Structures are given as structure tokens and as C-alpha cells.
Amino acid sequence: MNALQKQHSQSGAALLAVLIVALVLVILMSVASQSMQNKLELAEKSKQHILAKASVQAKISELTYLLATQRVTVAGVSQGTASQQNANASISPIGDELRLDGFIFQQEDGLAYSIQNEDGLISVNSSGQYWLKRWLHGYGYSSIEQASYADILADYADPDNWRRPGGAELNSYIKQPYTTPANSLLQSCTELWKVLNWPNLLKHHNEMLEQCSVRRGNSLHLNAVPIKLWQLLWPNSAIKIKNEREQGKWLLTYGDFLAVEPSILLIADEYVSAIGGRKYRLYVVKHSITKYLQVEIGFGLLSPFTTRQLAAESSKR
Fold first, then answer.
1. According to a count of CB atoms within 10 Å of the terminal CB, is the N or C end of the chain lower?
2. First-to-final CA distance of the chain
3. How many other C-beta atoms can be found within 10 angstroms of the C-beta atom of residue 305?
4. pLDDT digit string, tens, across residues 58-95
5. What angle do CA 68, 69, 71 make, to 5 degrees?
6. Tally of structural domains, the chain
7. Is 17 exposed, middle or buried (0-12, 13-18, 19+ CB in 10 A)?
8. In-domain check, residue 25
């Protein structure tokens, strides 16, 4: 090989080496760039997560404050923006209320929230079982089935071991994959999973937990009944009540009840009301952050309010 060929060979080798090094550097830079991009995306997600969490907590605090301090009317809880003249009206709508029937409000920033007055839900701890049986009727269960489910629930909660006609006491649970009767009132609606035969209901109608409350009262707050629950109880007037609420028309008197649903005439006065309740469920969600808790408003010398975290008892949310 002459000197010229040798020089060309060495130049080619050097060029190849340079190209290889350049290629390696490009690959390394690409990997580094992708790694940096991933870290930036992760940081941005973390930032958004923190901001969403802060937004949700701020909304929870705002709603709790409103419930503890502002006027509650048949239309909901005031936001404190109504004029003093309107604010002096007793339970009549003011015009700035947030609904208490579980209606989901959507904000432009992606946050959604709802307030549900528990007096608009079906009580499983009430001394009477009128609404419990109407509830089961709405789901298509016969009078015999309604009585059986009601008796089983009552036997689970009462302190004795005397079995009701369609009920179930300790002996009925021995061969079943459930716990023994609590012999005390239910502490949460999820406890229905422990009541004999009730899991069959919940498996077929998982929205029942959303419509259930462990309050003690027998009266149903008609302005706080969720639309889906109203449709079960009074299917013929569900669309009407939905439209009227959207137009800001709320039930104030017994005459208003009958104008919307004439069959309420057949219901004893103590079972229906236009307002009431001190327990509320707050649901707030933004992105992947969800809060679901109960706020109970105190009175007298009690704390202004207490809160309790709730399980995600809702199938729709």
C-alpha cells in the first residue's frame, strides 16, 4: 500500500470513528431529552394533583361554611349573595341557593360538586317503615317481599332476639355467610351488606346505597329527594318535578305537593315535609381527587358542625 492509499485509509477510519461518536452522542442526547421530558411531565402531573387536591379541599371548606352559617330555604342553602330584603323571607326561596337534592354542579375549571340533604333519602333506621316499603315497591318488589325485607332489617337492628313474622334473628344467620345481627341501629348504609338477604338487593340495585340514609326521622324532605329516587317513588311526576326545579320552582306548601303529585294526598302529613334536616353529604371531585363526606350541623351548645368521611357509596359518581 503506497503512502496515499494509507493516508486515505486512515482518514476513512477517522471519519467512521467520528460518525460513530456523533451517533452515540445523538442517542445519548435523545435519551437524556426523553428522560428530562418524562421528569417534566411527572412534575406537571404532581403539580396538577396538588392543585386539584387544594381546589377540592377549598370547595369542601366553602360548602361546609355555607351550611353552618347561611340560611337554608326550600330551594337549598344560600350563598350569602341575596339582598337583605329577600334574606328576611323565612323558608321561601331567596334566589342564590345551592340545591340540596344531590344535583351535580359543574365549574369551568373542571371541578364538580353536589350537596345532598339526608332528609331527602330513605331512612333504614326510622321507627316507621313506610318509606322503606315504598322504596322497595319502586324497585318492583311485592308487598310480601317488602314486608320480609323490612322485618329482617328491623330484627337486625332491634336489641331483642324475638323474630318478626318475615324477619330473621340469630338462628337464621348461623348457616349464612353473614355476621350476627348487630342488635343496634345501622351506623352506615354499607352495613346493609351484613343484613340477611339484603346483599341480593344491593347486587341488583347498587344505587340503593346512594339513596339510603341512617337518619332516624320518618318524614321525607320532598325538595331534597334526588330525581332518580323521585322517579322510583312517583314515576308519573318525575319529569315535571325535574323541570320545575331547573326553573327554580320549589315546593313550599302542602298545596304545592298535591299540584305536582296528587297521590301525596294519601300520605299522612307526618311523612312529608318541605324543609328540614341537619345532615348533608358533600361530594367534590376534580381530576383524580374525590372527596365524599358527611357534614352534620350542630345547634345550641354543640359544635357548629362535625364532619365524617364516607365511603364511596355512589354508583353514579
1. N
2. 82
3. 16
4. 999 999 999 999 999 999 999 988 765 455 557 899 99
5. 105
6. 1
7. exposed
8. no
